[in-house]
Amino acid sequence: MDLERSYRLCQRITKREAKNFYYAFITLPREKRRAIYAVYAFCREADDIADADTSIEEKKTQLEGLRSRLDQASTGDPQGGIDIALADAIARYGIDPQDLEHVIDGVEMDLVISRYETFSDLQAYCYRVASAVGLSVLPILAGGADRLPRKARDAGEKLGLGMQLANIVRDVAEDIAIDRVYIPQEDLRRFEVTEGMLRDGAMNDQMRDLLSFESERALHYMRTGRSVSKFLPRNARGCIVLLAEIYTRILRIARARDYDVFKKRLSLPTGEKMLLILHTWFER
After folding, report:
1. What is the mean pLDDT of residues 106-121?
2. What are the C-alpha distances in Å from 136 to residues 43, 105, 130, 155, 262?
3. Predicted confidence band at 280 (pLDDT cuts at 50, 70, 90)?
4. How far is it, in rounded angstroms, from Cα 22 to Cα 273?
5. 3-state SS, residue 181
6. What whole-number distance in Å separates Cα of residue 36 and Cα of residue 28?
7. Does the pLDDT at position 267 exceed 90?
8. How many other C-beta atoms lie within 10 A of the C-beta of residue 137?
9. Looking at residue 25, what DSSP letter applies?
């Protein structure tokens, strides 16, 4: 497989799987967009390995293989498939392979951890599965890692945390169905919400107060993290703003439904996403 075919493969994977992210990537110039497709395809493969219907040992073996492939891609010796495009993106934009290593670390956590006692514990997970993805993308958006000040990474980390916390609110019902609870146990106790209430989708004052609290926490980090856009060139700012706005609006839908996230999955209508894209495009 040559470089162009590898990039096209990454684009197909992203278009099929990325949902909200794909809409944001559309706003980018072609070269930056393609590089992000390569990063996304790699992260998607890590997720798919962790979610596959195989043994934990088999998953760990496959993730070790993915680590080896990342090492080869980052040293200019990709083994084929999406790795060819990933190697090109790493070399072109100075992506730190350690950020992508953290993504693998994060999905490995899902193999053995299904509950988090404190918000600090949860933050460590969110950093790996969300913030690290964003940090690997920032050099692409900036046009090179050497153009990024430390403050940009700090803001990007917070934006990724906020978006992952929004995902946790949105996916409460889906997660409890596979015996995962990402809302910290300390928060469940504070608001007197039991796991049985989560399984039953019991909407009461305790549940609403809990999900409102988690939503406001997510919004706080997203508001803080949006400042990363000021460190980026004009042709890349829209992508960040659009992603933050999509996730912010999802949480607004949750609030409008009085935080009933159990009956129907929270999502932004496609038409509204397209209007946001147009607005972002003309504001560039």
Report:
1. 97
2. 10, 14, 10, 13, 33
3. low
4. 11
5. strand
6. 10
7. no
8. 27
9. H
| Residue appearing with tokens 């790996």 | 128
Alpha-carbon span 183 to 164, nearest angstrom = 11
Residue range 180-216, pLDDT digits in tens: 999 999 999 999 999 999 999 999 999 999 999 999 9
- Token digits of residue 62: 């496959």
Beta pairing partners, 181: 115
Write the CATH number of the domain with boundaries 3-283: 1.10.600.10
Cβ neighbour number for residue 2 with a 10 Å cutoff: 7
Q: Give the global pTM.
A: 0.93
**Measured distance CA(279)–CA(284) in Å, rounded:** 9
Q: Residue 217 has which token pair? A: 């926490």
DSSP reduced 3-state for 115:
strand
Q: Where are the domains of the chain?
A: 3-283
Which residues lie closer than 8 Å to 61 by C-beta, 6 or more apart?
none
